[in-house]
Amino acid sequence: MMTFEPTVFVVDDDEAVCRALRLLIKSAGMKAQTYSSAEQFLDAYKPSRPGCLLLDIQMPGMNGLALQEQLAQRKLKIPVIIITGHGDVPMAVRAMKLGAVDFIEKPFRDQALLDHIKRAIDQDAQDRHDQAELDQIKQRLGLLSRRERQVMDLVVTGKLNKVIAYELGITQKTVEFHRANVMRKMRVKSLAELVRLAVKAGAPESPPTEK
Amino acid sequence: MGNKLQSQLEKHKVAAVVALVAALCLVMFYYHTVLHMGKVVTHFFYVPVILASFWWKKKGLIVAMVVAALLILSHIFLRRDVTTLDDYFRAGMLVVISCVVGVLSEQIAAAKDQISQHARRLSKRVKELHCCYGISKAVEKHGTSLEVVFQEIVNLIPSAWQYPDIACARISLKGSEFTTENFKQTRWKQQSSIKVSGKCIGTLEVCYLREKPPSYEGPFLKEERRLVDAIAERLGRIIERTRAEEEASLHQAEVAHLSRLSTVGQMASSFAHELNQPLCAITTFTDGCVRMIKSGAADSSELCEAMEQAAAEAHRAGKIIRHLQNFVGKRKPDRLPADITRIIQEATTLIEAEARQNDVAIRLELPAKAPAVLADVIQIEQVILNLARNSFEAMQAAEAGKRELTIRVSTPGSGAVEVAVSDTGKGLGSDEVERIFEPFFTTKPDGLGIGLSISRLIIETHDGRLWADADARRGATFRFTLPIAREIQ
User: Between A and B, how many CB-CB pairs are < 8 A?
Assistant: First the structure.
């Protein structure tokens, strides 16, 4: 996946605030992209672009909370920092529950905001990295045959080859053969690594259909 | 002068009676001595006797008795016959007739006297009434300007007095004085104190410049005394009423002011938000500039632009604060010719923040040139604000994107300008259309319910009308009229 430079996306209906934020972010050596409405942002944003979103809660038309709901619906995982105008605690709480990573009140201290942004961008980078890894694991899992998958599921529970052979009704030799394939296809060198990958992949998926 | 004429007339009357009596005596003498038939002449003596009794009433009796005596004596000395009862009877009749005529004459004179007294009284009353009517008209015409009213009244007063040509008047109040042109304080004066709420605050004086000509005074003095007191009381009441009206107007101004404070208090959070925006922009711009300078990557044109934008934001904040201060300030109500479009635009800037927060679109339909209206700018802004905020409340339940507030100005004629404030909210029921203007009637759970009644009070004080149209389908429309400012003559 190509990596772009992380961008701070700013959505605020107040033009002056947008321009000021663009200047501040630029002065901290980062890229900024401003939008004066949530709709504009949704139209322009592409999930492949890393960064974070600075979002004003109080806006006419689609407000900050509605945008968050839209992001959740479209499964866009960009980290959101909420900017509130007048200490509206209930709204801030709702925003956090909808998945915002942080919130900050206007007028804010520049260092505080930049710290929030840095944390969010780091978070975003981490998330993307994790996602990429997961995608890789899933891809490798897809390469396993049904038998191989069955063997793997039992291996990671810590059962001995002998027991696996008994449960699956095959010979121990066959089990060892499948196990070796699994280790090769999953590109792991030890049982511990295999277990780690399995955990990362989450709940056991149904094995692929018989090839 | 009249006396001289009168005494001349008296002399003539005496001369006439004497001459008549003398002439008749001669005639009778002639008749007695020459013709021997003087009896018939006695009838002629009725003439001077009646005249004398008519003119001199009781004194005429003397003349009658003299003539009667003359007759008897002449009869005795000039005639040769016996003096019969008939002759005495004739003589006596003269006396009786004289008495009767004397009495009648007295009564006639008394009646004439009474009539002339009544006539004078009547004319005095008419003058008083004329004066009172004049005072009423003066108050009606110049109701608000006490100075003009009092000057007119003081000029009317002398005409109500018995001798208007030599009468003059003065009204003295604390700090001001109103007099007729010819006023001079003399010793022939009547005065009364002007009282307001029981306290004496001035005096009314009526003076005669010269000594009054002597005439039958008695009752006139008393009546003029009463008139002075009555006029002074009237003046007191005029002042009381003017003060009450001023106080009422101040109260209304106070109520309007408090209402504005309350409104602003309710809008505080949206005002705070409004001010926060420019503040945030300013701090962010300046922080950004500082960073750029510190990092050495400062481009002076970029820095300049940033600082200029920060300054512009500071001005923007200042404007919002100024609008607020103007709106909230306590001032004496000042009705001057004003531009209604400007008033609406000012009110719109005050509600912009709340409109945005409530997601309401504001539409203004203003004519290119509306006639000037006589209005207190801040109070009319207050009314528009109140109507707009009610509309925001009513549109809460409406779909986002379909909330619209329209303010329209029209001139339907009849010397007034009409402003209509319409919304796309839930509208009004036909029973609510009048009830909503009642004080303390509210459909809001936390509302006081006096906004509309105060708004109506303000518009009515401006000689306008405020009412609501009920059309539940398309939301409510509130309309109010303001009189067009006419050129000052």
Answer: 83
Question: Which value does ipTM take for this structure?
Answer: 0.73
Span B444-457, pLDDT tens digits: 766 667 788 888 98
From chain B, pick out residues whose CB is under 8 angstroms from the CB of A109.
Answer: 283, 287
Q: Which residues of B touch A14 (CB under 8 A)?
A: 277, 281
Residue B309: list chain A partners with CB under 8 A: 16, 19-20
Which residues contact residue B50 at a Cβ distance below 8 angstroms, ignoring those fewer than 6 apart? B97, B98, B101
- pLDDT tens string B408-417: 999 888 889 9
Mean pLDDT of chain B: 84
User: HEC states along chain B?
Assistant: CHHHHHHHHHHHHHHHHHHHHHHHHHHHHHHHHHHCCHHHHHHHHHHHHHHHHHHHHHHHHHHHHHHHHHHHHHHHHHCCCCCCHHHHHHHHHHHHHHHHHHHHHHHHHHHHHHHHHHHHHHHHHHHHHHHHHHHHHHHHHHCCCHHHHHHHHHHHHHHHCCCHHHEEEEEEECCEEEECCCCCCCCCEEEEEEEECCEEEEEEEEEECCCCCCCCCHHHHHHHHHHHHHHHHHHHHHHHHHHHHHHHHHHHHHHHHHHHHHHHHHCHHHHHHHHHHHHHHHHHHHHHHHHHHHHCCCCHHHHHHHHHHHHHHHHHHHHHHHHHHHHHCCCCCCCEEECHHHHHHHHHHHHHHHHHHCCCEEEEECCCCCCCEEECHHHHHHHHHHHHHHHHHHCCCCCCCCCEEEEEEEEEECCEEEEEEEECCCCCCCCHHHHCCCCCCCCCCCCCCCHHHHHHHHHHHCCCCEEEECCCCCCCEEEEEEEECCCCC
Residues from chain A that touch B356, judged by Cβ atoms under 8 A, are 13, 58, 60
- pTM (2 decimals)? 0.58
B287–A16 C-beta distance less than 8 A: no
Say whether B291 and A106 touch across the interface (CB within 8 A): no
B356 and A CB contact within 8 Å = yes
Q: Do A24 and B284 touch (CB under 8 A)?
A: yes
Kindly list the residues from chain B whose CB atom is less than 8 angstroms away from the CB atom of residue A107.
Answer: 276, 279-280, 282-284
Is the distance from CB of B256 to CB of B454 less than 8 angstroms? yes
Note whether B280 contacts A17, CB cutoff 8 Å: yes
B287 reaches A (C-beta below 8 A):
yes
| Angle, in degrees to the nearest 10, between helices B218-266 and B300-328 | 140
Q: φ and ψ at B177, to 5 degrees?
A: -145, 140
User: Which residue(s) pair with B373 in the sheet?
Assistant: B338, B484
AA letter at B478: F
Task: State the pLDDT confidence band at B219, using cuts at 50, 70 and 90.
Answer: very low
Give the integer Cα–Cα distance in Å for B283 and A24: 10
